[in-house]
Amino acid sequence: MHEIVEKERLNEEMTRIEVKAPLVADKIKPGQFIVIRMHEKGERIPLTFYKKDEDKGTIQMIFQKMGKSTHELDTYEEGDEILDVVGPMGTAAEIEEYGTVVCIGGGVGTPEVFPVAKALRNVGNEVIVISGFRTEDLVVCENELDKDCANELYITTDDGTYGREGFTTDVLEELIDQGTDIDLIHAVGPPIMMKVIAGITEEHDIPTRVSLNSIMLDATGMCGSCRVEIDGEMKLACVDGPEFDAHKVNFEELMERITMFEEQEEEALENWKEEHEGCCG
Ligand code: FAD
Ligand code: MG
Fold first, then answer.
1. Nearest ligand, CA 269
2. In Å, how far are 19, 88, 138 from 6, measured between CA atoms?
3. CA of 153 to the centre of ligand 2 (A)
């Protein structure tokens, strides 16, 4: 059992939890993730670690309320316990001195980018962070990015209520147009954002890696549900990734596969909301 030692609702959609998991905290590296199961009847959901504290033996995650499981997780309070926290899963992000690295986070991809950007900065890279949200109320991690990761930080909102109006890709194009010498791009966010980034950077020959959030069940390479096509070859995002060369990803297939269970997911959320009437929005 893993106690939730701290919980903070960041906004209507996103919540940060700090969970006791000393063995995971000891080993987990930027870019890796964990799989949690809340209780015996719970499904397994993958979440990327956001921060860790080896002394306290805790890891932190930021999750966005999407469907049944994340709504349920959001009802857990400080002192409640999660049945399983399994990890570290996946391969760690490669952290080397590249020069200038642009880290791009879209929505809940921003907390996933955070530990990677921080590690890249710590080994001496010039780190430019571009972080995009739909609207002002959903902006998270700005202070942390500013303090720990970014030599330069750009926040964008789709509706222009905060930071620059537009998409993360608009800022990226601006940086390229201004002649910024970019040695590497690391991006995490909605598949469509990562696809557009891959298109832009391929044209400019900028090495680009993306972390793919395909559907994972066991996350140990057995079930195959997270399979993705990389350079024409079948790979498993859970064990071969989640990070891949953006220019080799078949994004069309990825976008199709992540909506595979939409009907069942909607039904599960409806049923759950009926059973827990009044508990959540
Ligand atoms: P559902 O209604 O079941 O699904 C909503 C949508 O979430 C689906 O359409 C699908 O796109 C996705 N999804 C559903 N089940 C899974 C699954 N088993 N695995 C992956 N995606 C699924 N989300 C965060 O908010 N924060 C994170 O740090 C984070 N890290 C992730 C890291 C990895 C490696 C992966 C693969 C996913 C990550 N996700 C993260 C996505 C998160 O796992 C899903 O949002 C969550 O499983 C949705 O569960 P649900 O029952 O609430 O929603
Ligand atoms: Mg689900």
1. 1
2. 7, 21, 20
3. 33
Indicate which CATH number applies to the domain containing 113.
Answer: 3.40.50.80
Global pTM reads 0.95
Give the closest residue (by CA) to ligand 1 atom 53: 67
**What percent of the chain lies above the pLDDT cut of 90?**
89
Which residues are CB-neighbours of 12 under 8 A, at least 6 positions away?
137, 138, 281
Under DSSP, the state recorded for 10 is -
Give residue-wise pLDDT tens across range 159-189: 999 999 999 999 999 999 999 999 999 999 9
DSSP H/E element including 151: none
Give 35's contacts (C-beta < 8 A, 6+ positions apart): 44, 45, 46, 47, 84, 85, 86, 87, 89, 216, 219
Ligand 1: residues with CB < 6 A are 33, 45-48, 61-64, 66-70, 108, 112, 213-217, 242, 258-259, 262, 265, 269
Q: Write out the residue range of the structural domain in which residue 234 sits.
A: 100-257
Of the three residues 89, 120, 150, the one that is the final residue of a domain is 89
The answer to whether the beta carbons of residues 168 and 201 sit under 8 Å apart is no
Q: Give the three-state DSSP class for 168.
A: helix
Both tokens assigned to 97: 């001195």
How many residues belong to the chain? 281
- 280 in any annotated domain: no
60 and 20 in a common domain: yes
Q: What is the mean pLDDT of residues 122-141?
A: 97
Structure tokens at 179: 């002649």
How far is Cα 159 from Cα 10, in angstroms, rounded to an integer? 20
Neighbours of ion ligand 2 (CB under 5 A): 67, 69
Q: Whose CA is nearest to atom 45 of ligand 1?
A: 66
Q: Does residue 55 register a pLDDT over 90?
A: yes
